[in-house]
Amino acid sequence: MNHLSQKALLLLMAASVNGLAFAGDSSQAREWLERMTTAMSQMSYQGTFVYVRDEKVETMRITHLTDDNGVRERIYSVSGPHREVIRDRKGVRCVLEDSASVVEDQVVSSSYFPELPLSIIDGEASGYRLETGGEARIAGHIARRVSISPEDNFRYGYDLWLEEQTGLLLKWILLDTRHKPLAKLMFTDFAMGSAIDLVEIESDSSPEDFVEMSTFSLEKTVVTQSSPRWQPAKLPPGFQLASHNRKTGSEGVYEHMVYSDGLAAVSVYVEQQGAGPAIRQGVSQLGTNNAYTRNLGELQITVIGEVPAITVKSIANEMALSVASE
Fold first, then answer.
1. pLDDT digits (tens, 9 = 90+) for 112-171
2. Cα angle value 283/223/251 (rounded, 5°)
3. Across the beta sheet with 181-192, what order do the strands follow?
4. What is the Cα–Cα distance from 149 to 147, expressed in whole angstroms?
């Protein structure tokens, strides 16, 4: 064996050893995600993080406090336009200097940190593959990588880096179907427990500057007893109805459904077209969210969610009046 072949063999062996050392099965990944879910809700932590999306960079500061008063959270911008979000037992309130960034859709107006319902952690047929990976040093802490990879092209995936001792989330990357980053978040400094500064939980903004936000939570949705009049004849694998509401009145028909696979969520709107100009049909993009609008007679169907374009288009094109609802 010549020198080049020996070197290639050694490199191959080293790669194999590293793979064995860091690759983990799905049960180990689930354990890490369970730790993360518990830690993010029950522990107090504080830090500065950088959020990158569409080549735009935001630097934010977060204080998440869990004590006898329940859970309180304050996030505010360190750079750029003034943005601030407060979450507590009263709900979610925000100040957004760049008002154009306000999105009313419940699926779109979510937290900077992904929610991971138990259905993803416990479900064997969730549509995702769970794995553990290597280690990294983030904000002065050792973190372990956990990957949530889609098994088809209807959903995105995540790479998560969890603090080794607590499971707190220090970094995440949202990945498209080609494993290309769509958005990422990473802490640059991080403290937890008694090391946090309690003063930062209090806002400097005037109460009059805040507006209430309605937020969508996969854990808190309740399906109404009535079935939707309009339903997709076929859904992407793993997606099912998570919530539904319907209104009828002088302005016509309005129906809103949320479909979820346990991690990704998609909003579907069916409404009477107004007298104004019709919204352009087709796919549009809003940050990491895709939307698809189509007209069906006098009705307008819009589907939006943090999923690939093929998902919103498929659901919109499958919408049809349910005979069972008559």
1. 888 776 666 666 667 889 999 999 999 999 999 999 999 999 999 999 999 999 999 999
2. 60
3. 128-138, 141-150, 157-163, 169-175, 181-192, 45-53, 56-67, 70-77, 83-88, 91-96, 211-213
4. 6
Cβ neighbourhood burial of 67 (10 Å; 0-12, 13-18, 19+):
exposed
Helix, strand, coil percentages (3-state) for the chain, rounded to 5, are 20, 45, 35
pLDDT tens-digit readout, 224-261: 456 788 889 999 988 989 888 887 665 666 789 999 98
How far is Cα 245 from Cα 296, in angstroms, rounded to an integer? 20
Are the CB atoms for 293 and 274 separated by under 8 Å?
A: no
Q: Structure pTM? A: 0.79
Chain centroid to CA 299: 29
* Domains, the chain, with CATH or none: 21-213 (2.50.20.10), 230-325 (3.30.200.100)
